[in-house]
Design a protein that fits this description.
The protein is 33% helix and 20% strand. The chain has a 5-stranded parallel beta sheet, with helices on both faces. Strands 8-9-10-11 form a 4-stranded antiparallel beta sheet, covered by helices on one side. Helix 7 packs across helix 8 and helix 7 crosses helix 9. It has 2 domains: 161 residues, Rossmann fold; 96 residues, Arc Repressor Mutant, subunit A. The chain is α/β, with parallel strands linked by helices. A hairpin with a 4-residue loop joins strand 9 and strand 10.
């Protein structure tokens, strides 16, 4: 396991409250089985919302939620949209995780074991002012919503909810001006669209595996600056994943060849013992 946060203190819920069989991947967005019905609204129409290419955005979210069953189910549902989710149930761990990683958005519950979830928002705003925060909570009275929005949340969604509605709200907050600057990165002859998993070289699409795209995006955001290995690993891997010692080097080796073959006009330099540097030319 990577990172400083100890996940062993997550509450282990008894399995008896769950259905005997987990829903199939096809059903994850609809949650028709009873144990999670208090969290997710039921959408029985398979064609209610088409999953478009835009929905496949590769985002990384932090989910701060004390109900492990909900967190696991929501993480699986979001993974269908290509979203990587880090989960914690404690405010203290959430603060540490936001110091270690950069998240595209944060999903925040209010009732947490170590305090009121809304107290996390002013802390985050002092360090990362533009990270979108969506409050997900059963505390959904009008004045409770007003309280959450006034303290700095970007959106407020009551439980139960449709995963499709959550995705729509994520797209909405990511379209706001504070996030627009992150949507496209131009370096050399390439343009990277992290939200839609797109890379082009002179307007010609370049097909990259997901992890190589994440490496390229992390390097391009810090063009002409040395990026530490630990920073790149945090951008590419979930903090629970075991990372082989040479995995990052293998991704970068393959990425270099693809960029050279495509004539991308950029080069990735190895700064021995430190990290990597992306430069034009």
């Amino acid at each position: 396991m990577r990172g400083k946060v100890d996940r062993n203190d997550l509450t282990q819920r008894p399995a008896s409250g769950l259905a005997e069989e987990s829903p199939s991947d096809d059903n994850l967005g609809y949650h028709e089985y009873k144990p999670l019905s208090r969290y997710f609204a039921t959408n029985r129409s398979r064609n209610a919302v088409a999953i478009s290419w835009a929905d496949k955005a590769r985002m990384r979210l932090l989910l701060i939620e004390d109900e492990k069953e909900l967190a696991d189910a929501l993480s699986r549902a979001l993974s269908k949209y290509g979203i990587l989710t880090d989960h914690t149930m404690h405010l203290a761990d959430a603060i540490e995780l936001t110091c270690q990683n950069v998240y595209d958005a944060i999903l925040l519950d209010r009732r947490l074991p170590d305090g009121e979830g809304l107290t996390f928002i002013p802390h985050l705003r002092r360090t990362r002012t533009d990270t979108p925060i969506i409050v997900l909570t059963a505390r959904n009275e009008p004045m409770e919503r007003v309280e959450g929005l006034d303290i700095g949340a970007d959106d407020y969604l009551g439980k139960p909810f449709l995963v499709e509605e959550l995705m729509a709200r994520l797209r909405a907050v990511l379209r706001r001006p504070a996030s627009l600057a992150e949507l496209q990165i131009t370096v050399g002859r390439i343009v990277i669209d992290p939200l839609h998993l797109g890379v082009t070289v002179d307007a010609i699409p370049l097909d990259l595996p997901r992890r190589e795209l994440l490496v390229l995006t992390a390097l391009a955001k810090r063009k002409d600056k040395v990026v530490l290995r630990s920073t790149l690993e945090a951008a590419v891997y979930n903090y629970e994943e075991e990372i082989q010692s040479n995995a990052l080097d293998a991704h970068i080796s393959r990425l270099r060849k693809r960029l050279l073959d495509a004539g991308a006009g950029i080069a990735i330099h190895n700064i021995r013992g430190v990290g990597y540097l992306l430069k034009e030319g």
